[in-house]
TrEMBL record:
PANTHER family: ASPARTATE KINASE, ASPARTOKINASE. This is Aspartokinase. NCBIfam families: asp_kin_monofn, asp_kinases, PRK06635.1-2, PRK06635.1-4. One of its GO terms (cellular component) is cytosol. GO terms for molecular function: aspartate kinase activity; ATP binding. It comes from Wenxinia marina DSM 24838. It comes from the Bacteria. Substrate binds at T47, E74. Pfam families: AA_kinase, ACT, ACT_9. One of its GO terms (biological process) is threonine biosynthetic process. ATP binds at K7, F8, G9, G10, T174, D175, Y180, R185, K210, V211.
Length: 412
C-alpha cells in the first residue's frame, strides 16, 4: 500500500480534543488506502517547559541530559495518538526514536539524522498495522544516548521518514494554512503562497520563519520529497496549503518572495582586539567549541593595529560566548579590552531567488527602513537574501515596512 507521512505540530496536539481531531484526519487517509506514518510534536508549550526545567537546574547543562529531558514531551503525544486511533478501531502503535531506531549523530540538542532503518515498521504494516505513530524530534546516538534534532525538529523527523519510506507525500499540519510571504501573526497583509521554491523556503526557515525547520527543507530538497504545509484546523482539499517544490515548477514569482525575522538575537562586540593574522581564528575557534552558533560577523576598521570585532548569536548563548571569550583571554590566546553584549536586537531578512538577476533590492530595503527611522546595526547578504540587525523594538515595524515596499500582498 502507498505510504503517507502526516506530521502534527504542537498546537495540533495541544490537548486530548485536538489529538482526537488529528486522529480523525489520519482516519480519512487510512480509509483512502494509505498506510500512514504519523509524526507528532509535544503538546504546545511542553518543550519550552522542559527546557525551562533544565536551565533552572543547570544553566550550562550537559546536553546529553538536556536531550533526555526535552525528548520526553513527544513520548506522551505519540502514545496518546496511538491510543486514540486504537479507540477508532484503526490498528496503530507508537514508536519512540530509539525504537525505530532513528540513528543520529551525537551532536546533542542539534543532532542530525543519519539513518532510519525501515524494517521494523514495514514488517508491522505487512502484518496489518495501518498507522505507525512516531515521536518526532528525537533519535539515538551511536553511543546509545537519546538525542534531539534542534527546536522544531519534528518537521525534520517527518521529512526524513518520508524519504526513507518513499512516501507519496509529507503533509505538515500546523496552526496556519500554509507558508505566507511573512509571519501572518505580525503582518496582517501577509499572503499565503500556493507554491514556494525549496531554495526560498530554505532561506526563510534558516532566517527565522519557524513554519518549517531548516533541515527538513534541506532533506526534502535532497530527496525530492513532496512537501506540503497545511492547516490542521480547516477543511483541506487536495490542493490546500502550500507545496514546497522545485524552482522550475513555479511559473511566476516576485523578486522578493518573503520576509523573515529572528527575534532572539544578541550583538556581541569585542572591543580592541589585535588586528593581525590568526585573531579571527583565535576568537571563533573557541566560540565554535563552546557550541555558540555565530551568525553575522563584522570587523571594524583598524587603528594602531587594534580593531573591534562584532558578531551575532542567539540570546540564550550569550553566557556561553562570554565564558568562552573570558577563558581565551585568561589563557592568553586573545586579548581584548571589553566584551559588550547587546541582547536587544533582532534580525530581519528579505529572501527571493529573483534577487539573483535583479539589482537594487538592497537599496530599496535600506530606503524603506530609513523612512521608518530604523537604524541598521549590521548587514549581511548572499545571492538570494539580505539580512539586517536592528533594535528589537522596531522588528515588527520593519517586517511590515519591507512587506509593503516589495508589494508582497499582491501575487506576481
Ligand atoms: P508547529 O507547532 O505546528 O510546528 P510552529 O509554531 O513551529 O508550528 O510553526 C508555525 C508558525 O510559524 C505559525 O504559527 C507562524 O506564526 C509562524 N511563521 C513564521 N513565518 C511564517 C511564514 N512565512 N508562513 C507561515 N507561518 C509562519
Ligand atoms: N517539540 C519540539 C519543539 O518544540 C519539536 C517540534 O515541535 O518540532 O521544538
Ligand atoms: Mg514547528
Amino acid at each position: 500500500m502507498p505510504i503517507l507521512v502526516m506530521k502534527f505540530g504542537g498546537t495540533s496536539v495541544a490537548n486530548i480534543d485536538r489529538i482526537q481531531r488529528a486522529a480523525k484526519r489520519v482516519a480519512v487517509e487510512v480509509a483512502k488506502g494509505y498506510d500512514v506514518i504519523v509524526v507528532v510534536s509535544a503538546m504546545s508549550g511542553e518543550t519550552n517547559k522542559l527546557v525551562g526545567y533544565v536551565s533552572e537546574t543547570s544553566p550550562l547543562y550537559d546536553a546529553r541530559e538536556y536531550d533526555a529531558v526535552v525528548a520526553s514531551g513527544e513520548n506522551v503525544t505519540a502514545g496518546l495518538m496511538a491510543l486514540r486511533l486504537q479507540e477508532m478501531d484503526i490498528p496503530a502503535r507508537s514508536w519512540q526514536g530509539w525504537q525505530v531506531p532513528v540513528r543520529t549523530t551525537s551532536a546533542h540538542s542539534q543532532a542530525r539524522i543519519e539513518e532510519i532503518p525501515t524494517g521494523n515498521i514495514l514488517r508491522k504494516f505487512a502484518e496489518g498495522m495501518r498507522v505507525a505513530v512516531v515521536a518526532g524530534f528525537q533519535g539515538v546516538s551511536p553511543e546509545g544516548r537519546i538525542t534531539t534534532l534542534g527546536r522544531g525538529g519534528s518537521d525534520t523527523t517527518a521529512v526524513a521518514f518520508a524519504a526513507a519510506f518513499g512516501a507519496e507525500r509529507c503533509d505538515i499540519y500546523t496552526d496556519v494554512d500554509g507558508v505566507y510571504t511573512t509571519d501572518p501573526r505580525i503582518c496582517d497583509k501577509a499572503r499565503k503562497l500556493d507554491r514556494i521554491a525549496f531554495e526560498e523556503m530554505l532561506e526563510l526557515a534558516s532566517l527565522g520563519a519557524k513554519v518549517l525547520q531548516t533541515r527538513s527543507v534541506e532533506l526534502a530538497m535532497r530527496f525530492g520529497v513532496r512537501l506540503r504545509v497545511l492547516s490542521s484546523f480547516e477543511d483541506n482539499g487536495e490542493t490546500a496549503g502550500t507545496l514546497v517544490c522545485a524552482e522550475e515548477d513555479i511559473v511566476e514569482s516576485n523578486v522578493v518572495a518573503g520576509v523573515a525575522y529572528s527575534r532572539d538575537e544578541a550583538k556581541m562586540t569585542l572591543i580592541s582586539v589585535a588586528d593581525r593574522p590568526g585573531v579571527a581564528s583565535a576568537i571563533f575557534g573557541p566560540l565554535a567549541e563552546a557550541g555558540v552558533n555565530v551568525d553575522m560577523i563584522v570587523q571594524n576598521i583598524s587603528e594602531d593595529g587594534r580593531t573591534d570585532m562584532t558578531f551575532s548569536c542567539p540570546t540564550d548563548q550569550v553566557l556561553r560566548a562570554e565564558k568562552a571569550m573570558q577563558a581565551a583571554k585568561e589563557s592568553g590566546a586573545i586579548n581584548f579590552q571589553e566584551l559588550v553584549a547587546d541582547k536587544g536586537v533582532a534580525k530581519v531578512s528579505v529572501v527571493g531567488i529573483g534577487m539573483r538577476s535583479h539589482a537594487g533590492v538592497a537599496a530599496q530595503m535600506f530606503k524603506a527602513l530609513a523612512a521608518e527611522g530604523i537604524n541598521i546595526k549590521v548587514i549581511t547578504t548572499s545571492e538570494i537574501k539580505i539580512s539586517v540587525l536592528i533594535d528589537r523594538k522596531y522588528m515588527e515595524l520593519a517586517v511590515q515596512a519591507l512587506h509593503d515596499t516589495f508589494g508582497l500582498e499582491r501575487a506576481a
